[in-house]
């Protein structure tokens, strides 16, 4: 969802041409595709090589890293390209701004170390020093990412090439070298080193092609930057926590085998939800082109998007229900019947999430950020409370029920905000 804010601000401020925006959308899609392909290729390898129980441990660790990594994304995917575009003709100011963001990421990395320490001490990996240190390497690797700078400099294609080569190379090395059951301890070293290499190569590109020179940033400037983007950060945090909390909560009650069985099904659902975000980029760009001044045309477009999403993700949900064994077998060779059953119950989630997207776009365009922030914040609270309570009584099905109810709440909250506004209610809109 981070790139949605970028497209909104770019369109409003006229900071780039339509061609550049569309090109960046296409390249960003390519980067997202590689990143989505990554887990799809690795999951069956992990399960076949290390077993479903070890995969459960990897899944819990990955969920934790994903949540903590929101600290490093903060709000810069939305705002950094805009700020760079404002000073794109002044290399000194560009260097100063990029250095400031890098320094901010270094500062927020420090509290993430405490979170990692708590996670390690409260889990079974506290007895596994090699695996624990691999999480430290992986966490550090996620603390620096240059993509937002490349978007602002209109250099997304070089980043796409660097990201693709390194990620594909990492997958190949994992397949070739980590073939023993005990080699799971080194998976996060490989993943972490690949991200570090992407950062190093992309930074070298900035130095050679854009004359980037690192500068020291005062603490007051760092604090001002963190305060400026904290609202968007909190929104991103709630969204990411919703996507990853279920796996962590299950690990509190059950062993890694059950967590792994569930996570295979949930991973498919979350990849379907991620496809909404990727598709959203192009759809939102079109909504920005129409603009809020042409409110009737905009509402007509949003209404059409609502029904197209309903049909598309409704059909996708039916496929998940009709062919769960076939889909699960692509990823897992163990406990497929259990994962298939979980997939059937989780199947409505992408459709429910898709039905909130038109409302989400409308709220973005009309600068009503507090509404969708509240929707996700309340949804996160509901999800965590329900997950712990229902998981205790209904086991894995309790987590599934809480996820479905949370998605229904968020979608109903956002759409009700639209319905209550005569101007924004695209459900009854007609072009005169």
Number of strands: 0
Low-confidence stretches: 1-17
Shape: globular
Helical content class: over 70%
SS summary, helix count? 20
Rounded to the nearest angstrom, the radius of gyration is 22 Å
Give the mean pLDDT.
Answer: 87
Strand count, sense and barrel status of the largest sheet are: none
The SS-based structural class is: mainly alpha
Note the gap between the termini.
33 Å
Order of helices and strands: HHHHHHHHHHHHHHHHHHHH
Number of domains: 2
Task: Describe this structure in a few short sentences.
The protein has helices at 2-13, 18-50, 52-68, 70-73, 76-86, 91-121, 129-142, 147-152, 156-177, 187-210, 219-228, 230-253, 256-290, 295-322, 324-329, 336-346, 348-354, 357-365, 369-394, 396-419. With 432 residues, it is mainly alpha-helical. It has 2 domains: 1-228, no CATH class; 248-432, no CATH class.
């Amino acid at each position: 969802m981070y790139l949605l804010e970028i497209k909104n601000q770019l369109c409003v401020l006229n900071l780039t041409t339509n061609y550049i925006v569309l090109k960046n959308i296409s390249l960003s899609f390519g980067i997202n595709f590689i990143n989505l392909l990554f887990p799809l290729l690795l999951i069956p390898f992990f399960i076949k090589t290390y077993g479903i129980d070890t995969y459960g441990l990897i899944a819990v660790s990955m969920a934790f890293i994903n949540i903590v990594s929101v600290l490093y994304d903060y709000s810069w995917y939305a705002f950094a390209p805009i700020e760079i575009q404002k000073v794109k003709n002044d290399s000194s100011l560009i260097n100063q701004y990029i250095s400031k963001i890098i320094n901010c990421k270094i500062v927020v990395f420090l509290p993430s170390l405490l979170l990692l320490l708590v996670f390690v001490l409260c889990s079974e990996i506290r007895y596994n020093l090699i695996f624990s240190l691999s999480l430290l390497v992986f966490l550090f690797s996620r603390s620096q990412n240059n993509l937002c700078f490349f978007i602002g400099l209109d250099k997304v294609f070089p980043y796409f090439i660097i990201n693709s080569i390194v990620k594909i190379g990492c997958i190949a090395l994992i397949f070739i070298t980590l073939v023993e059951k005990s080699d799971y301890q080194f998976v996060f070293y490989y993943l972490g080193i690949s991200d570090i290499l992407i950062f190093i190569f992309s930074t070298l590109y900035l130095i050679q092609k854009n004359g980037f020179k690192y500068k020291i940033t005062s603490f007051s400037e760092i604090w001002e930057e963190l305060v400026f983007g904290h609202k968007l950060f909190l929104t991103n945090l709630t969204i990411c926590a919703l996507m990853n909390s279920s796996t962590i909560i299950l690990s509190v009650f059950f062993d890694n085998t059950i967590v792994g069985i569930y996570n295979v099904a949930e991973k498919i659902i979350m990849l379907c939800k991620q496809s909404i975000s990727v598709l959203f980029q192009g759809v939102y760009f079109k909504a920005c082109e129409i603009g809020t001044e042409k409110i009737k045309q905009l509402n007509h477009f949003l209404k059409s998007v609502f029904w197209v999403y309903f049909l598309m993700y409704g059909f996708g949900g039916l496929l998940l229900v009709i062919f769960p064994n076939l889909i699960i077998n692509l990823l897992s060779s163990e406990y497929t019947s259990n994962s298939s059953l979980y997939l059937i119950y989780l199947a409505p989630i992408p459709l429910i999430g898709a039905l909130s997207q038109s409302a989400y776009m409308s709220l973005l365009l009309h600068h009503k950020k507090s509404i969708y922030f509240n929707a996700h914040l309340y949804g996160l609270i509901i999800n965590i409370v329900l997950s712990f309570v229902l998981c205790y009584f209904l086991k894995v099905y309790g987590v599934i029920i809480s996820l479905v109810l949370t998605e229904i709440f968020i979608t109903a909250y956002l759409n009700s905000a639209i319905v209550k506004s005569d101007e924004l209610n695209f459900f009854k809109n007609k072009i005169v």
